[in-house]
Amino acid sequence: MDEMEHLVVKVTPPYIGSSSARERFFKLREQYEQQAQADLQPGETAAYYVNDSELIALMNGLGYGKPLFFTSRTVTYTNYAKLSAAREQTGKWSFALPPERIGGLQFAGGRLFAKTPSAFEPEYQLALETLKAKTEAAPDGNPLAATLWPLEKLASAEVIYQDGSNQLKLQLFWNNAATTGPSQIHVSPGQTTELWTYEDKELLFIPGTGAGEENGSSVSRLYWYDSAYGGLALITDPPDKRLTREQWESIAAGMVQR
What we know:
single chain, elongated
């Protein structure tokens, strides 16, 4: 692996709370997730089913639904060109990443996250039935069955910028209207909307109001709809800070002027 890249292994942390049932559920979930990740290569995602009666009973009692899970071994890219190339190789996306520089901030790292289906999509049900049958037919009684999930579509990207001790972490989300249906953009009372045009590209910017308030309307949002792809990209203010207007303009221009 290139020295400019390193691997981040994501394992669901145990739940810390007052419910012993939840604590037990997350302990079992973490145990099986580690098993499912054991054979994954960097950048791979897997769907896995656990035919464990205790886990299933806990899931039913806690209202978590069916025991089909997804896990990934996420690669963090510290080279912007390699992150951009990885995005282009994973599905046919017209959405660009945020630019390499935002004002005085320089790209420091980025990750890509695969889209996994919801419980209402056919792909989810098919994977659930296939893996469940595999565990029931397992001669060794292994309660876990896993399969690689193809990285044909991306759900989101995380891009980190650095300038000395000043760090900025952006999340970029993609939504495919063909599979999830039309998206509604909510505008709170007092908020304004601005249509930003760069050459033939248009982006919708909704400035946050009441930056000191802890509510959704305090967060600025930038949307980019692609009619050819039928999808919507969204970037919001990070949870720990509010971007300046100049930073938002730099992000918007960098995404469309390639």
